[in-house]
Amino acid sequence: MQETFFDHLPKEPVTLSEGAILLPGMALNLDANIPSLLNLIQAASPFRNMITPGGHTMSVAMTNCGKFGWVTDKTGYRYDPVDPLTNQPWPAMPASFLEIAIGAAVAAGYPEFQPDACLINRYLPGSKLSLHQDRNEADFTHPIVSVSLGLPASFLFGGLKRKDAVKKYTLEHGDVVVWGGPSRLRFHGVNTLKMGEHPVLGEQRINLTFRKVV
Ligand code: MD6
Ligand code: FE
After folding, report:
1. Which of 19, 51, 69, 184 is deepest in the core (most CB within 10 A)?
2. Which CB contacts under 8 angstroms, 24+ apart, belong to 159-167?
3. How close is the Cα of 146 to the center of ligand 1, in Å?
4. Residues whose CB is under 5 A from ligand 2 (ion)?
């Protein structure tokens, strides 16, 4: 039988809630290529701190790859086929990114997932992401696949209402979270990133979230 990365999961999957699963270490095989792939992407479409519709500058810096990119500015949130900073299409999604996203979705029970957007979040120590829902996608039957790289983060996982209780999970380098179904619209966020030095990515955390937008 052909070996796949499913055969090398270092830890058991963890169910966060119905439809949401943590696959620890599932993206570790991206390791060797990730710095060069991220460098290629940010050379074409640099990380930038976007502005929310409310006028706040986000502490998390963002870029995208794939057919569509998530952007926010004073006019609102949207998916855009063009990077507003460069007026060019976003860089293509690397084949290894696509492979890891589809593999994780299959493992989590979403065999149809074909992402067309990958939002790349960069956290430096002190960056955080407030509690939010991901609801700018047209069809919530598609899951979101989230890959954590670099420094560990404290991930906040709440309910369907903002005031619902929040659980905390540490997401480490190589961890993948897939969530869809009844969990697709759960509130979530990331606590302020602590200082540290990661052997592969240095003083930062990178999060890739794969979505099906169209
Ligand atoms: C992060 N993640 O982990 C932020 N959204 O840096 C998200 O906001 C997120 O992990 C939707 C689905 C999975 C996620
Ligand atoms: Fe999100």
Report:
1. 69
2. 159/186, 159/187, 160/185, 160/186, 160/187, 161/187, 162/131, 162/187, 166/131, 167/16
3. 6
4. 134
**Which of 146, 147, 175 maximizes ligand 1 atoms within 8 Å of its Cβ, making it the mutation to test the pocket?**
146
Is the pTM above the cut of 0.70? yes
d(CA 81, CA 88): 8
Give the pLDDT score at 29: 85
- Identify which of 187, 184, 190 has the alpha carbon closest to the alpha carbon of residue 170: 190
Is the distance from CB of 68 to CB of 214 less than 8 angstroms? Answer: yes
- pLDDT for the residue numbered 142: 97
CATH of domain 5-211: 2.60.120.590
State both tokens at 122: 């960069």
Q: Are 194 and 125 in contact (CB under 8 A)?
A: yes
Q: Mean pLDDT over all residues of the chain?
A: 95
Could you tell me the distance, in angstroms and rounded to a whole number, from the CA of residue 111 to the centre of ligand 2? 21
Question: Nearest residue CA, atom 12 of ligand 1?
Answer: 144
Q: Give the H/E segment covering residue 101.
A: helix 95-107
Residue 31 is predicted with a pLDDT of 74
Q: Which residue is closest in CA terms to ligand 1's atom 6?
A: 207
CA angle, 29 as apex, 5 and 91 as ends, to 5°?
Answer: 110
Query: How is residue 97 written in tokens?
Result: 């990114």
Give pLDDT, residue 47. Answer: 98
Pairwise CA distance, residues 9 & 12, whole Å: 7
